Amino acid sequence: MLSSILRGGGTWTEKLLYVLISVFCVLLSLTLHEFGHGLAAYAMGDKTAKSNGRLSLNPIDHLDPIGALCLFLFGFGWARPVPVNPHNFRNPKGGMVLTSLAGPITNFIIAFIAMFIMTIVGDIRFSSQNIGFDLATVCYTICYYLMFMNLGLGIFNLIPIPPLDGSKVVGAVLRTDLYFSYMKYERYGFIILIILINTPFFDRFLSFCMNGIMTFYSSIIGLII
Fold this sequence. Notes:
The chain is mainly α. It has helices at about 1-5, 10-45, 50, 60, 65-75, 90-125, 130-155, 165-175, 175-185, 190-195, 200-225.
């Protein structure tokens, strides 16, 4: 993402504005992702996130520098995981599944809202020739980055490789013996992710999923507008 901004046209002032917008979108996307986890856990009886100060909309409380940098550079990444104690859930396995899914679902909702606003603002962006053009362009750009980042973040975190959310969903539905067999590879998860991210297959997979979701969103928005 950063390289595309720097390679793109426009003045350095415009490029700086786009960099600032992308940083804002990274912080907002990661914060709402983790807030979604914490809120879901709290709603189902686990107050661990709240007691640790993680039921928060403060980006600093959730920031993982490497994950944020990946989201800024590549459009997918992660934040510092919200602490969860499944023993506090009324239904431990079901609660863990819903809490794990809450983050990616939050991202998909944000992406839909952003795409919806883009559709509305687009008419202003491409027709106005006054100050509204500049304001609409900034709004459109923010929504574009939010859509792109949140789709990438949501899809990426559903991959069933520890420590991503997808691995917690799979772990919650496995039998106890299979769960421990599965999680013993958790220490290799980050290495596996780094290798996966650098394969051509991953880019094709991510693009395929994002295009499919955007097509689905477009059909829904078309029915609304």
